[in-house]
Design goal:
Helix content: over 70%
Number of strands: 0
Order of helices and strands: HHHHH
Mean pLDDT: 83
Oligomer: single chain
Distance between the termini: 25 Å
Low-confidence stretches: 141-155
Number of helices: 5
Largest sheet: none
């Protein structure tokens, strides 16, 4: 394990935010399960909007520098993966914004499937971020430094 105490506070903060985001996703999933077919659209829209706002702030903090940037400075081969992570922020926000706009359709199978797909994309994004932190700082729950390939990269 590499020792980077100057980054530990940011890593802890990032993990705390990931936990809050995961809980917000679970809250929406519970709302969808409990409310269908008579979905409470206002309450669901509020939860989706809160998730959207949380993600926007979280991504803004990540893009302003911090541990991901420090990870690249320590392990330069992480640069393409960190770039890929940051580029994904736009598409993830676009997905959640569409869900907020479509909240009136929350009772439809299509909406529920769209949210499920969004949650999977978001989870994969979080796993990739955690793997970057683990590779650079030896933190996290992963037992390998194996990274997913960057876009277009072959393994």
């Amino acid at each position: 394990m590499r020792d980077f105490p100057e980054c530990q506070a940011f890593v802890d903060h990032l993990r705390s935010e990931h936990k809050q985001i995961r809980q917000a996703v679970v809250d929406v999933e519970h709302e969808l399960r409990a409310a269908c077919p008579s979905c409470e659209t206002d309450r669901l829209r509020e939860k989706l909007q809160k998730l959207s706002d949380t993600l926007a702030e979280h991504f803004k903090e990540e893009e302003q520098g911090g541990c991901l940037e420090e990870a690249v400075s320590c392990v330069p081969h992480l640069s393409p993966l960190v770039t890929q992570i940051e580029k994904a922020h736009v598409s993830i926000l676009r997905l959640i914004h569409r869900l907020v706009e479509r909240a009136d359709d929350c009772h439809t199978v299509d909406f529920i499937e769209s949210f499920r797909c969004f949650a999977e994309v978001l989870h994969a994004h979080e796993v990739t971020e955690d793997q970057v932190l683990h590779t650079a700082f030896g933190t996290g729950e992963f037992e390998t430094d194996e990274l997913p390939p960057a876009d277009g990269e072959q393994r």
